[in-house]
């Protein structure tokens, strides 16, 4: 593979990652605004929103260092789909559970995306960009682990609230 083709793959991956992180924000921000009975989930989402904003900044720095910019079209398209996904769960009686499952799946998508992007960075000789990408990956792995660890307690709380006839609203 020529250096130009590897660079193109890397740039495309960076632009995709930037759009993916904007999509993540468009999913998490509406969720956190609706949470009433799960303060631990709200706090973690707020923390991860701040991390995601930092991830976007790291991606912009990498793109800028390569004399590239994010794709506004990709950002807009994925932000829109993220907003629609978040909106779709609002009508569900078990919104908190659906959001927890969807967030868990999305975190794993991000993990796979960063692992692939780091591999391309290594193959393409972009060693200086591996550390910021690894920082993003580490944050995604930590969030996925938190979601996994908290799915059971969140589900139990949801079931207990429903069983007690209380609002289990997210």
UniProtKB/TrEMBL annotation:
<dbReference type="InterPro" id="IPR012347">
    <property type="entry name" value="Ferritin-like"/>
</dbReference>
<dbReference type="Pfam" id="PF05974">
    <property type="entry name" value="DUF892"/>
</dbReference>
<dbReference type="InterPro" id="IPR010287">
    <property type="entry name" value="DUF892_YciF-like"/>
</dbReference>
<dbReference type="InterPro" id="IPR009078">
    <property type="entry name" value="Ferritin-like_SF"/>
</dbReference>
<feature type="coiled-coil region">
    <location>
        <begin position="42"/>
        <end position="69"/>
    </location>
</feature>
<keyword id="KW-0175">Coiled coil</keyword>
<dbReference type="InterPro" id="IPR047114">
    <property type="entry name" value="YciF"/>
</dbReference>
<protein>
    <submittedName>
        <fullName>DUF892 family protein</fullName>
    </submittedName>
</protein>
